């Protein structure tokens, strides 16, 4: 297929998934293979997250056709946490454009922890990318709206369009995070001092905290990811959420920075743009094909769900999703002209 951007026709070739039955079989297999793995610990730096059931494990694949394949605890709810950064970034790009958001937020990996203050200081107040907390706060501050409540309304409606349903805040998670987000408040104040946040920094932190407390399930993550995979059209509702160019921008950022300081390792082993959250969710996107949403609360030291990472890696291989994989192609030998 082809699209036209700035008057230039761009060709897009992304392949396809196996048939329905095969995808169903592989999703069930991925769940069965890893459901008994017990490595990792439930996050506890946000107190309420420590209450999660470590046995929960859901796997969903959403195709760009709208087909959904689920296994395990696909409907178990949890707070979206940092996965929200990917979709709020897309909303900001849709509202303000490629250049403005790139200039204000950046697209390069910091190589440091997601909540690093040093990274901001080392880069003269530049957040560097929207998948670390400094960049996410700067991104949230860019959303349209004259007041924090108007920005919140824009944000929650936009993420609901990605998911194909209204999303609500988990009040217990919001309260727990609001009581322990002193570091984010400090980062926001620092960004304000560098002119990267022009609004009230504490109000920005509050909107961001509510954003992270939105309640989703693995099925929502898969549909949200499949919307990015489908050029910005939600494959379940058929609604255009963002432009195709915005999806390219968001997926490029996810590929390079979505898994924090492990982004290179993730891309090397799994080969998909992805984003994780400390509550145990992961979304991984195969452009033109679909997306994987997983949930399991046991996370590794980098903050990535152990079972989710294993299941995503398995599905990337068995469904042929790795962006960098190819097979040798032998062209038919052309006969030399007489």
Describe it for me?
The chain is of the alpha+beta class and 338 residues long. The protein folds into two domains: 2-80 and 215-318, 3-Layer(aba) Sandwich (Beta-lactamase); 83-212, DD-peptidase/beta-lactamase superfamily (Beta-lactamase, 3-Layer(aba) Sandwich). It contains 13 helices and eleven strands. The protein has helices spanning 20-34, 84-96, 98-105, 118-122, 133-142, 148-163, 171-178, 182-193, 201-212, 218-229, 244-257, 263-269, 306-318; strands at residues 2-5, 8-11, 41-42, 58-63, 68-72, 78-79, 215-216, 274-276, 281-286, 290-295, 298-299. The strands form four sheets. The protein has a five-stranded antiparallel sheet, sandwiched between helices. Helix 2 (84-96) packs across helix 11. The longest helix is centred in the middle third of the chain and has 16 residues, at 148-163. The radius of gyration is 20 Å and the shape is globular. The relative contact order is 0.19. The model has no long low-confidence stretch (mean pLDDT 89).
């Amino acid at each position: 297929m082809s699209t036209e951007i700035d008057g230039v026709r761009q060709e897009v070739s992304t392949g396809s998934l196996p048939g329905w039955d095969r995808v169903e079989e592989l999703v069930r297999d991925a769940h069965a293979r890893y459901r008994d793995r017990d490595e990792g610990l439930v996050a506890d730096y946000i107190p309420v997250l420590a209450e999660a059931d470590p046995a929960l494990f859901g796997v969903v694949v959403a195709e760009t056709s709208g087909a959904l394949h689920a296994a395990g605890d696909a409907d178990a709810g949890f707070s979206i946490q940092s996965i929200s950064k990917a979709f709020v970034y897309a909303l900001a790009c849709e509202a303000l454009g490629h250049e403005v958001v790139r200039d204000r937020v950046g697209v390069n990996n910091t190589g440091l922890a997601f909540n690093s203050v040093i990274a901001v200081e080392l880069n003269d107040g530049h957040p560097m990318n929207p998948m670390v907390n400094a960049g996410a706060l700067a991104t949230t501050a860019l959303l349209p709206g004259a007041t924090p409540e108007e920005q919140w309304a824009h944000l929650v409606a936009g993420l609901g369009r990605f998911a194909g349903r209204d999303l609500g805040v988990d009040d217990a998670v919001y309260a727990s995070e609001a009581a322990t987000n002193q570091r984010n408040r400090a980062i926001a104040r620092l960004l304000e001092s560098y002119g990267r946040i022009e609004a009230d920094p504490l109000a920005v932190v509050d909107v961001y905290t509510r954003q992270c407390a939105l309640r989703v399930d693995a099925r929502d993550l898969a549909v949200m990811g499949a919307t990015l995979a489908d050029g910005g059209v939600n494959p379940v509702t058929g609604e255009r959420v963002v432009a195709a160019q915005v999806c390219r921008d968001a997926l490029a950022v996810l590929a390079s920075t979505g898994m924090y300081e492990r982004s290179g390792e993730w891309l090397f082993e799994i080969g998909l743009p992805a984003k994780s959250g400390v509550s145990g969710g992961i979304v991984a996107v195969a452009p033109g094909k679909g997306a994987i949403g997983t949930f399991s609360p046991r996370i590794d030291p980098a903050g990535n769900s152990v079972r989710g990472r294993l299941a995503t890696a398995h599905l990337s291989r068995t469904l042929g999703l790795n962006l960098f994989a190819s097979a040798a192609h032998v062209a038919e030998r052309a006969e030399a002209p007489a």
